[in-house]
Design brief:
This protein is an alpha/beta fold and 347 residues long. Helices cover 25% and strands 24% of the residues. The longest helix is centred in the last third of the chain and has 14 residues.
């Protein structure tokens, strides 16, 4: 049987890092990383492109576009793609790629490690091997993260642990699969069959690709006593604010000083900017209709609801939607479309 062709896109991260006197920093190239795992040659014909070599803390929206371009420049030449990435912002990049490269019939799999490849007790070798394995699977598609033996939809991942090898969890959606050494066990076969909303011009053999993002998006976590004048301070620099509310959707009626929150938020969106409501609670999502302190925001134009999406997906999706249009109604439409399983269809 002819081996599938897989392109490995290296970006740096812990997996590529070495200690050189000032703390861990990326040093190994993608080519060097593959030499640590010669077993991948039995799985696929592997080529490597080095998109960048940075700590993922330094990953920016412009870098997400660069990774997407690297994939799409070679899309027709390969059967799947593996992106080596640092863990700290991997969930953001996976979400961003889910919006930039939609409905991909070929798998785009992100992975990395909690310890460097050259470490004696690393998780990097197995993660790299299993990611290539998943990228060669006939049923794999779209953007996902394969890490620690679990495969997660690219819009549903969150880094839950800073040191343990099972770093990522799938939030409000079942994992796509588990990988037991060299065997893929699918836990949610319906995930690939269920039709998601999306652009009308996508076809079965080509993804729909976007190349614009608006990075002027700010994530604001409510804390007791927060001054509502923060919205006025943010207005010159940002086009959207993502408000992480209390509980299922609680927003204070009054700050310590300044205008009430309702006036401040209404003024923000009435000026043509976008506000996205989500919750700072990790699981089960938002419902603005439950409590009086949230209901006033449930149907106001320009206020979007993050439902059960992850904060990482909300940030990336808002940047993507604003990158396509400045029309508030169209932004809302794009934001509410289900893409790569990013939100449950209960609204």
């Amino acid at each position: 049987m002819t081996k599938k062709r897989i392109l490995l896109v290296a970006t740096g991260g812990t997996i590529a890092s070495k200690e050189e006197g000032n703390g861990l920093s990326p040093a190994l190239s993608g080519e060097e990383l593959t030499r640590y795992v010669p077993e991948v040659a039995d799985l696929a014909t592997l080529d490597v492109k080095q998109a960048m070599n940075i700590d993922s803390t330094n990953m920016r929206p412009s870098d997400w576009l660069r990774v997407a371009r690297t994939i799409m420049e070679s899309y027709d030449d390969y059967d799947g793609f593996v992106v080596l990435h640092g863990t700290d912002t991997m969930a953001y990049t996976a979400a961003a790629l889910s919006y930039l490269i939609q409905h991909s019939p070929k798998p785009i799999v992100l992975t990395g490690s909690q310890r460097p490849m050259a470490s004696a007790f690393t998780d990097a070798k197995l993660n790299l091997y299993q990611s290539v394995l998943y990228a060669t699977d006939d049923d794999a598609r779209d953007v996902s993260i394969a890490f620690g033996g679990i495969v997660i939809a690219g819009t549903r991942a969150r880094k839950q642990r800073t040191m343990s090898f099972n770093a990522f969890t799938s939030v409000n959606f079942p994992p796509l699969a588990y990988i037991r050494t060299d065997r893929i066990v699918r836990s949610a076969p319906f995930a690939h069959a269920r039709k998601a909303d999306g652009p009308r011009d996508h076809t079965a053999d080509r993804p729909v690709v976007y190349d614009k993002l608006d990075p002027r998006v700010f994530a604001l976590k409510l804390t007791p006593g927060l001054d509502s004048r923060i919205f006025s301070a943010l207005a010159p620099s940002y086009d959207a604010v993502i408000l992480e509310t209390f509980g299922i959707g609680g927003i204070p009626e009054q700050g310590e000083t300044g205008p009430c929150f309702q006036d401040a938020i209404y003024s923000w969106v009435d000026s043509g900017r976008i506000a996205v409501m989500t919750t700072q609670v990790p699981e089960e999502g938002l419902d603005l209709g439950v409590y009086e302190v949230g209901r006033a925001y449930a149907n106001h134009p320009g206020i979007l609801r993050g439902a059960d999406m992850t904060p990482e997906a909300i940030v990336a999706k808002t940047m993507w939607a604003l990158g396509q249009t400045r029309d508030v109604a169209e932004v809302e439409h794009l934001f509410n479309c289900e893409i790569n399983h990013d939100r449950s269809p209960f609204e």
